[in-house]
Structures are given as structure tokens and as C-alpha cells.
Input
Amino acid sequence: LMKPVIGITPSPSVDVLAHGSFLRYAMSAPYVAAVLAAGGVPVILPPQEGNARTLLKVCDGLLLSGGGDVEPGRYAAGYVHATTYGVSAERDAFELGLMEEAAATDTPVLGICRGIQVFNVALGGTLIQDVATEHEGATSIHHRQHEVGLATEEKGHTVRVVDGTPLKAVFLEDGLGVNSFHHQAIGELASGLVAAAYAPDGIIEAAFVPGQRFMLAVQWHPELMFERHPEQLRPFVALVEAAMARRLVGATG
Ligand SMILES: [Mn+2]
Output
């Protein structure tokens, strides 16, 4: 049986070299390592227009990776916060198009960090553009744990996993420790999305789309934790298992 193919969206970045500046579609290696460890076949999907249907015929599942902020106009914010950074209209359009096609084709999707924010914007929700200055109670939790000296694989805060959600089925525990490297978060939760985990300050740290085979997103970075904290491989295993189940349905249907 062939392993399921998992498409991962990369981040645009510019490398300045001696002979010029080059736009790259860059993939952080830990995402690839996590998909491999979970038994999937990772492929990197560069942003492109009009090919979502073809890409999701090739891929059995999708991983929306972390990265820069979603363009605030995408959720009608009416302003751009001074800290909003790394906006890529090209990436926004690509990932929002993939979300629409994934919903239409029952394709499993795991969102990570920016990915949970893309989930919410895709379904009509809004974002908190800067948690530190726009979220009440934000001072009690460090969502940018590098600013207090914590390494990428360390646990920066806990999350309360909501009973009866797919995340509870994935982690089977409360008080889960997670890392945290985000300055934005879900604001108004989209009506098509259900919160699956909360930080102690009320920030939504995980969410899922009910009625879909597997559309789950987390605000933290499990790919940076799984080697030291094996439970953090579980969301990738869940994605790969759902992708395999999706392929088997496609093969017979
Ligand atoms: Mn956090």
C-alpha cells in the first residue's frame, strides 16, 4: 500500500546573495521530518494560481505551515497593526484556495500556527493582530516564548483541551504543554469552526471544522517538539491516517 502524500505549503522568503536577491519558497525542515516520522510522503507546494484542484488530486492530505501574517484586509480589519509583518498576498490567495478545495473534496488538513489563522479567515472569522497589545490578560502568558529565553522545543504554556473534540482524541490528556511563537491569534471565531483548546489567558490554541473528515489546526508548533515530546507527533499521525483513509475511499468511490 502506497503511503499517503502530504502537501506542505512553504513560506516566501528573500535570500540576498552576492549575485542578487532571490525569492525562495522555503520549507522549514522540521515539518518535513514530522510528516516522514508519521508515515507520510511530504511534498512542498509552491504558491500558484488556479491549480488547487489538480494539487489535491495529487495530495491525500495537506499541511498549512507557519509563517507571516495574513493580510488584514482578508478579514476586513479596517487597519493594519504596526506589528503585522511578512504579509504575502500570493500565499494568502493560494492557501485560502486550497482550504476551499479541501473542504469540497473531503481532503484532510492540519494547520499549524499561521495555519490556524488561515482556517479562521477562510471560514469568515477575524484575527487578533497583536496579542500583546490587543488581548486583555495577555500579560499573564508569554505567547512569544523566545522573548523569555525558552528554546523552540520547550513548553511555554499549557492548553486546556476541550472534551469531545478531535484534539482530545489525539492527545487524550489535559494540561498539555505546548510551545508558543505567535503574536497573532484567532479573534472572532468563524461560525464554521469549533475551538478545541485554550491557553490560560483565553487565547484559542486549537480548532477544528465539524462535519469534515479531518480539518484540525493548532496555534503551537508540534513539529519543533515531537523529537523531545513524542506526544506532539500525534497530530501528524492523525493527519496521515486521515489522508490514508481518504485515499482508500477515493480508490473505491
Ligand atoms: Mn500560544
Notes: The mean pLDDT is 94. DSSP finds seven helices and 13 strands in the chain. The helical segments are 29-37, 52-58, 89-105, 114-122, 131-134, 166-171, 234-252. The longest helix spans residues 234-252.
